[in-house]
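Hi F.,

I've been meaning to write this up properly since the lab meeting, where we talked about keeping a consistent format for the predictions we share between groups. The idea is simple: the sequence comes first, exactly as it goes in, then the structure tokens exactly as they come out, then a line or two of notes. No screenshots and no reformatting. I'm using this chain as the first example so we have something concrete to point to.
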Amino acid sequence: IKTLIKQRFNYTISIAEIENTNTASGTKRENELETLTKEFKKYRQAQQLWQDNYQAIDYQIIENEIVRKLSNQETQKFYE
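Output, unedited:
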């Protein structure tokens, strides 16, 4: 699959093989996904692939409607 991706895309796409995710097995093994996540975070920050953009979001009920209130105080209807 790596060869096919390299042929079809003209930019780098990170691919990793994970064997142990420690989900639904009930056994105690190393979770490779957690390790990969930490390693990829360091890589993407070093390569400046994107920046974290965290916003404080709050959900409220206003006039019997659920609204999403963003950190800039803008409100949006959650359901329409």
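Notes:
The beta strands are 58-62, 65-69, 75-77.
The mean pLDDT is 80.

If this format works for you, I'll send the rest the same way.

G.
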